[in-house]
Design goal:
single chain; alpha/beta; two-stranded parallel ribbon; 10 helices; binds NADP nicotinamide-adenine-dinucleotide phosphate
Length: 292
Amino acid sequence: MKMLIVGASGQIGFNLYQALAGSHQVTGTYFSYPMLDMYSLDMTKQGIVKDFITVLNPDIIFLPAALPDVEACEKKPDLCRRVNIDGTRNVLAAAGEINAKVVFFSTDYLFDGAAGPYSETETPKSLNVYGKAKNEAEKLIRQSACPHLIIRTSVVYGYEIQGKNFVVRLDERLRRGEKVKVPNDQFSTPTYVNNLCAIIKELVENDKEGIYNIAGPELLNRYDFAVLAAEIFELDRSLIIPVATEELGQQAIRPLRGGLKIDKIRSVAVTPLMNVREGLIDMKKTMERHSS
Ligand SMILES: NC(=O)c1ccc[n+]([C@@H]2O[C@H](COP(=O)([O-])OP(=O)(O)OC[C@H]3O[C@@H](n4cnc5c(N)ncnc54)[C@H](OP(=O)(O)O)[C@@H]3O)[C@@H](O)[C@H]2O)c1
């Protein structure tokens, strides 16, 4: 199949690119982080997006591109809207011109975190600008005439070129001997990026549509996740300080009991969901391979 990944320079997009490139004809785009053999594309530019997509004419468009920084979205709601909602609308309109399928990426931040983990059928009720924007963008996808697949996921970690995810940053800070405050009241279902992308590959190759939660099988708080990462990466866990979310002084309200239920994906996917220990061990091996 001919595939386009808008946002292939990001954590999920790049891993998806690697998972798909061996068996499909894949084109990737970046925005601010130039990547060899990929194209520059700003999804907020309607005309450019339309021309790029209609000329390329892919069967499937993956859209991991977003502004997923929760604090940045809270501080710059206009930018959040422009990228996460208007950008999605632009890609969707172009996909409609060529009847391409759209694979959109969404989040457990759609929910208020009062009673997670959440199933695909629960009604979103977001607490912050990021979550509300993702919900709006999801609605555009669901209401469009394009065939579509919506992947909801939660706290994604793994090796990535730009090194932005929680575990990569934790690893860097602990190696420098810094103390790191980590909330012990934010629960999620951490998801290993390679595992996520292998399952997405399976779904698209079986032409699945609709909403699927793809997340790790364990609900755990950020502090316990950090301690497990320190153990597996052989770092000093005593540098990790458990705190309540409110002590961090963050601007965006966090859903405390988040995470996603995975019964639906388990009923269709052959690839098993990796638990956090398995994911972190694989991540460590991947990082060692890349640094040698
Ligand atoms: N990571 C998580 O824990 C998590 C959890 C739940 C859901 N999600 C969702 O999964 C998706 C991917 O997340 P991620 O962690 O892979 O994010 P990421 O690493 O920050 O990647 C975001 C991608 O979007 C691109 N981008 C940003 N602004 C753009 C613009 N104006 N036009 C075109 N591309 C633009 C970035 O390009 P440059 O880097 O080149 O600027 C990058 O390739 C997002 O939709 C997010 O909401 C992520």
